[in-house]
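Reply to thread "Modeling small-molecule complexes from scratch"

Following up on the discussion above, here's a worked example others can learn from. I took a protein sequence and the SMILES for flavin mononucleotide and predicted the complex. Inputs first:
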Amino acid sequence: MLKIKRVPTVVSNYQKDDVADESVGCGRNCLGACCINGARLPLYACKKLEKSGAVEKLVISHEAKEPPVAFLESLVLGEWEDRFQRGLFRYDVTACETKVIPGKYGFVAQLNEGRHLKKRPTEFRVDKVLQAFDGNKFNFTKVGQEELLFQFDAGEDDQVQFFPCMPIDPENSPSVVAINVSPIEYGHVLLIPRVLDCLPQRIDHKSLLLAVHMTAEAANPYFRLGYNSLGAFATINHLHFQAYYLAMPFPLEKAPSKKMVTTVNGVKISELLSYPVRSLLFEGGHSMQDLSDAVSDACVCLQNNNIPFNILISDCGRQIFLMPQCYAEKQALGEVSPELLETQVNPAVWEISGHMVLKRKEDYEGASEENAWRLLAEASLSEERFKEVNALIFEAIGCSNPEEELEGSTVHQQNPSGSVNQKSNRTHGDPITNGTTSECLVLQ
Amino acid sequence: MSLTESSKSVFTEEEEKEESFNALWIKEALDELPHNFTITDPFISGHPIVFASLGFLKMTGYSKEEVIGKNGKFFQGPKTNRRSIMEIREAIREERSIQVSLLNYRKSGSPFWMLFHMSPVFGKNDGKVIHFVAVQVPISRREHHRKLRNVSGDLSDHFGSCRREVCFGNFVHQDRALPLECDDDDDDDEQGLEDWEHCEASESEKLKAVEAINNVLSILKRYIELSGRLVCGKRYCLRGADCLSSSLVISLGRIKQSFVLTNPCLPDMPIVYASDAFLTLTGYKRQEVLGQNCRFLSGVDTDFSVLYEMKECILKGQSCTVQILNYSNRKDKSTFWNLLHISPVRNASGKTAYFVGVQVEASCRNTESKELRPETKQLSVVGAVRVAVRSSFMVTC
Ligand SMILES: Cc1cc2nc3c(=O)[nH]c(=O)nc-3n(C[C@H](O)[C@H](O)[C@H](O)COP(=O)(O)O)c2cc1C
Ligand SMILES: [Zn+2]
């Protein structure tokens, strides 16, 4: 069994260090059977998505009634600011200094000294991407209702439906949007599909489509949704996506790409070039569902092959990045350099996208493109392994392997100084067979 | 709308006769240019096109009335490369020029490839962006080739580096050669067009774009120099450093509700940004409120204890919501109950850079059941302002 020790991020004020108490009538106004009766929350039901890219007009017509920005954006921002002013967050993220790291990629660095303190390291098993839901551990049915912003529903209607005060129906488990009390940018929220169904952290077609829907309805290219699988720095095994506003492009989004295949549904799959983490970009498709389903197929394949990964949904749901990774595995095997570990930066979806949240002032002040690159390159699969994984993915999606490239066109991942990553003697990201011999723990 | 004289729109209609004469003059001078180009005003909400050349109208098939007031993205469609759009968005945000191939749609719905070359126009005195200019050079079919998309190059080398005669000669030559050489390419129908992820312009088209933009810029420059003399020394002059960057103003212009930003670092905390809805609500003109402290909204019957309460919160750097009687400058000079929310807003270094004040007219508060709560709406303005301010200060250091 492979494990790493890390300080878990506190996403809810109700997250305890240890196994949560299971008292009845708990008095904290949670989502459990104890408190759910009579609970109400705004409900936003988005319009059904016809074509990809069909993210156009607001439904609200009369000007006086117009929300300040697009409807869903107003809802997220307004409810988030309300929780902010009520003091529900552990710190004021807008007081955290942030900057663009000089260089051609434009990595963004944030100094966030408050996010990881006050917690002791916990052990995380990193060699199993799929693990059963464990009701004894912290999960989102235990958060207080004041941390929930609204219910979010993939609509069946042609129009957006909004109900400011809708009872939560325990029989029909709602998807909810909640605050992350340790935000890494303004508007940091969690989307928890069918929260009462207690789904484990595992991509399924319906849930990913819901996440894509939300990105599309937010109608702001600076609002992205992200996902971390187990083994790729998810800390809570209860299905959730994250999202926040950062009004600039992520380096990942700016990376050039090269088309590999197009699926029968018109979804174009490309590989990113000259980016430290070898990644796939999915875009196009005859509908947003086509796009989402292609990514879901790929994720299910990765999950079944026990390969940890991250997802970034950007450009209002038009572009989805898929990043298989092996950092935690390397860390557990003791193959990550002490200097990288010392920074305590975990390359989860936001870091891999190029938004580096740094815990130490010296790391922030000395932040360089080189350092960012070195950390992210550790998370990347090797070239050979990436090829193997792609082959698995393309088979799962049902599109033939792209033609083997002609010589000379192999892409080497280069770091900014131009040197090609040296290949390690072991291929990382290999599926790790369960119940293996190596039992190793990494203490930070 | 701009804050300073020097960062004043070239096209804004003004009451003064001499200025509308100037606006006329500049439009006529620009109309004489043969190029396809548009000019936008980032200080107007929605960052609309304020001038479109005859060539541009002909190319797209729209009338002037249909184009003026629209954002440039009006011409995009499903096959427009998302990456190019992102690159343009970022160039605008960073106030730099960009040259990129772009697929657009005519009024008829037919797509076409063009070389899009955009450049910011800087005001004379304070160096702030006052406009953006973009030229659109159609890419001839003969020169299409399918290409891997590549990282946008740095344009500063291109810019202004070519001599007029050279470009012009080149362009004439290419143009004449075109019909003769355009032969067995007939499978370039729309199907083919739609398949292209990228369409590289020829060198001559790139030079043509540079030449065109230089011509437009030189006319604008002449105008700015001329009008700078004419409109000098009027009211509401804020010093250069106090006015907001075009990218911040573009972000703020998205927010359709009454609000102002004030700068606590300036004496008496003057207004540095006022939304269109604020002007509608209060009946003042933008130039009448910029540079003023918000107290002009209160009057004899305004409760002093509320004013005091606000002042306390501001001094402590806290947010507050109050109900206050305000006096408008609308035709009837009516008063209204203002449900006002004030919050400090931090920039990227975590320091308080502004206070935002969001006004809701109390009588408008009863809402339909299917709408956002007024409090949510009001706070969403605060949130949107925070996001805009935080990122606009995120500069490379
Ligand atoms: C002066 C100027 C002219 C523009 N002209 C066009 C145009 O002709 N076609 C187009 O597709 N986009 C054009 N744009 C770009 C869009 O207005 C917009 O900036 C772009 O789509 C990216 O921003 P968005 O995220 O708001 O869409 C122009 C922008 C400027 C500043
Ligand atoms: Zn409870």
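What I'd highlight from this example: The CA atoms of residues 204 and 273 of chain A lie 28 Å apart. Chain A has one domain: 36-54+70-442. Questions welcome below.
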